[in-house]
Amino acid sequence: MTRTPRTGPGRGWLLRLVIAFAFAQGAVSMARPAVSYRALALGADETAVGVIAGVYALLPLFVAVPLGRRTDHGRCAPLLPLGVLLISGGCALSGIVSSLPAMAAWSGVMGLGHLCFVIGAQSIVARQSAPDEQDRNFGHFTIGASLGQLIGPVAAGALISGQGGTLGRTSALALLVSAAVAAVALTSLWRIEHRRAKGAGGKPGHKVPVRAILGARGVPAGIFISMAVLSATDILTAYLPVVGEHRSIAPATVGLLLSLRAAATIACRLVMSPLLGLLGRRALLTTSCLLAGLLCAGVALPVSVPVLAVMLAVLGFCLGVGQPLSMTTVVRAAPDRARSTALALRLTGNRLGQVAAPAAAGLIAGAVGVAAPFVLLGVGLVGAAGLGLRGEGRPEPAAAPGESGTGPEPSESAGAPVQPESAAAPVRPESGTAPVRPVSGTAPPETGTAPVRRPGIDGAPRS
Predict the structure, then answer these.
(1) 5: left (phi > 0), else alpha (psi -120 to 50), else beta?
(2) What is the largest CA-CA distance in the chain?
(3) Which of 178, 180, 74, 150 is nearest to 119 (CA)?
(4) What is the pTM of this model?
């Protein structure tokens, strides 16, 4: 049976959502390296840069699940403009303040805004997409993120230049421009959530426990794969500028390298459907995570800029697989009434990785060297490949409408219940010569000398 998706005429809502996400993600991708450069200009070392990058994900850790609960039983669209405003304010104020603790605080506000936007947007995609459209729609949705990651670092690299006080001024300018870019996303946030999708999550009083969601087979694997892939992307964005400073690579070149990685990710998501048809979900997840782990560890090698560019391009293509497929994995494995909460738990795992990975990267970089965090990320991605090899969890059941047990339900005739035992139990004859057959419904039993035939009621002819 073919299910008609609740997407209204066309997919204009998805296009507008992708455009808004591109501007919001572009602002964040522009601000993240700018925050790192501005922190360096204010006297931060590698450890401090890692702490500031981790604070970006700290506030979202505490609000992701409550936001997911709210979204499961209400509208998703109000989270989108709220997220844009928080992103814009965090970017602007990060460029105005002149102390490292204040920069860390406003970086956290920026991360909170990004979380609000992503929870609302992912919930809309999950709610308004038919099951056979989820891979495609999530893949197209994440193209918006990749577009932002493509344009943001290039813009940041073009604006940031100089050393010392000049670097501080140009990085502050980049943060102010990123605030304006985020505000542009508000122009696309209209008619994205449809009326029929409103309140589709069930009654507010019926909450699925978090333990039950995490216990669903496939949810933990999807969360870890997403966390490993996003941590790799995040560390690349935050720490490639530090690597560039140590290897005397100009900020503009670093921005181009990050954008090359994002362009490869876009290319991957444009061909996601053919790749799934060619390799299958399990093989695609496993292969991409394994190659990404090896390439991420290879960034630690002192290679030339052209070789680094090739490595980042292939790495970006491999990293493009994990996010959309982990979204679909979590949505399909989670209980129906807790899909937004499951997506929020996935984002909580992402933010946990964004807190722990930069902090650990800062400690490792301060003790061993700036290239060492990429080896740590490579190990995490190889572990994600192992989870992908185990499979994505329980398959989606192909249940018929109204199915609630292990056996098929009897069919209904004119809304009246049918006695399922009537086909197997013999009919008790009355005192006459003709048997009496009970007929389901409101009509009285018929009697007579001729046999009564009722085809279509219980599936077997009567005589």
Answers:
(1) beta
(2) 109
(3) 74
(4) 0.66
